[in-house]
């Protein structure tokens, strides 16, 4: 695998980025504009009713973020002029159809005639998403982007990205199931969703009831074929469609693991949204996390966001105009630089001991080592002693005192059910003992080094991360800053 400069490749290129308001999409956009201001044009596809609302989203949800501070410093008063020359807003929706919901026919024709690279970063990453929504975005959306890309006469590459690598860097064939069960049919899944929605509407179900039914259906269908949740199931089906329908298109699939705050660029610690491990950190800091359920020695695969974006950029160059040289790149850390839950616990304790959270009473929250529940049996025992006995007592008292404690009982019952559902949802990850193969990604890194391209600018080697420094000096401070905002 030989290729040239990433910066030179980006010069005078026309790129489409879907999911433009998402975390990775914004970092990719900023990187391209910063390192190659001579990029010809970047089309940003984002959900919007019209050009005006798309422009508002660009300003409020993208350019208005701290992420773009270096570009603002570089261009100053000329930033808006620069942006207007480089960025074209495309109101649309990848779940809509093969035209991506783009109503402006002139704009569609323009993209089809000029586009060099399509990067699909649109996704819903909620593990417990409505099945109809996840199927529309993660599965059919991937197909729609591919079909749209096929109409682009100059296209050199399409880069679909999906999260949570599943051990091996191998493609899913259409109809493949993780548990070997036969019969997975994507068209049938879509038909089942439509049928269920029609039944619910015919029954006069409320919007909330339909929402919950769709959420439950996603988990149920995922488990039939061995996937732990709706997110990874629908993304896998999207990948199947891309592999099946790509024909002569150059395709490189990026599978990042858990994406965390930036390591270096455009500055350390930029993060947006409280992710799974971040919610644990904030809960711990506030004194609300009383136990950890899982294998404390287990490996958790995380990767800083700027490394994922750099891998995407290098993969662009490596696979442009190479239709028979497709690859799947799992961008993670568990093989090259493993991190354990025990490490995370230590880093959180060290950071919040030195920098305690200030409680609502104005006093610092003192943190300590939390109780570790190493099995589901221990968890059920803990819940029974601490909460279920109390719930049972409330139920008896509520009956005896003419439902005087009804609100308290319902609130505690709701919270317990929510916790149990969350635990069941994340259970496969809490006790996961595997690591994610990244041999293809390592080959890409080595090829980049051997080709002497800008490895200092497009770094993505996880061995370069010192986890203690990253979490205590970069990531946790970044998450705390975001939470306070």
From TrEMBL:
Enzyme kind, highest EC tier: oxidoreductase
EC no. given is 1.2.1.84
Q: Does the keyword Protease apply?
A: no
Offer one Pfam family short name for this entry: NAD_binding_4
Q: Does the keyword Lipid biosynthesis apply?
A: yes
InterPro entries for the chain: FAR (IPR026055), FAR_C (IPR033640), FAR_NAD-bd (IPR013120), NAD(P)-bd_dom_sf (IPR036291)
- Please report the stretch or stretches of sequence annotated as the Fatty acyl-CoA reductase C-terminal domain: 394-485
* Keywords noted in UniProt: Lipid biosynthesis, Lipid metabolism, NADP, Oxidoreductase
Cross-referenced SUPFAM superfamilies, in alphabetical order? Answer: NAD(P)-binding Rossmann-fold domains
Q: Which reaction does it catalyse?
A: a long-chain fatty acyl-CoA + 2 NADPH + 2 H(+) = a long-chain primary fatty alcohol + 2 NADP(+) + CoA
Domain called Thioester reductase (TE): residue spans: 17-312
Superkingdom, natural source: Eukaryota
Into which family does the record put it? Belongs to the fatty acyl-CoA reductase family.
| Cited function | Catalyzes the reduction of fatty acyl-CoA to fatty alcohols.
> Mind telling me what this protein is named?
Fatty acyl-CoA reductase
Q: Which organism is it from?
A: Salix suchowensis
